[in-house]
Design goal:
Blueprint lengths: L2 E6 L6 E6 L7 H17 L13 H30 L19 E13 L3 E9 L12 E2 L13 H8 L2 E3 L1 H6 L14 H12 L12 E7 L4 E6 L5 E5 L16 E4 L4
Antiparallel strand pairs: 1-2, 3-4, 4-10, 5-6, 7-8, 8-9
Amino acid sequence: MGQATPRRASRGGHLALRIGPPPRPWRAGQRVLVIAAACLIAALGAYACGSTSEPVAPTATANATTASIIAPTATTTATTVTTTGASRSCATGGLCRIGDTGPSGGVVFYISAEAINRAANISHGGMYLEAAPTDTATNPAWCNGSPSSSVYDTTVGAGAANTATMTGCSEGAAVEAAGYRLNGFDDWFLPSKDELDLMYRTLKLANPSLGGFGDGVYWSSSQADVNFVWAQKFIDGSQGKTSRNTTSLYRSTGCLVRPIRAFSPMA
């Protein structure tokens, strides 16, 4: 039997009773449908479902995701640059070690902390010294004629300046060295006494030996005095004063010439 439910009377302000069935409870399916509809409305209105907070910002989330994709791209680019620099060899303008093949095809035998051997019309200078892979074709005198001035400097870094001074000679060791050409490089010079010794110690004595040096006597660009020049025996490394002429008491020809050049890595 139905239950009585109150309703407002039409007259006199009295409540009247209406007899009828009670309101039906929501079925489970109806409840799910209502909740789903509420969520749909919330999504369309950019609100979090079941929350009264401010709207969620889907656009910001999408941007953040995009940024996380861009970041690895930047990292990849940086890695590529580093790899390119690291893969450059000494011969192609990279960093060098003793014994490496240099840009001209010679052999690196010295590394300086700063550029050395800069001399006008001879060498631009550089931090590396490389020896030519072979001797020049002849065994000349040290100088036929006279240098424009004395060249007594024996230190590492003096070879280019010594050679520039010796271009006053009509022919000889320095003239041959300065005229040497290899693979398009024309900035060669005759090594100073100490530069010549470095070639012997770092290349000839290497195991295995580097540079293709023989056991003969090599000219330096350093004078010992007015009449004698420093030369070095590559059979044992000894250095001594040698007549600057083609012949002397102990030889009938001049000494060997091994040109060198200075260079730096590419920027």
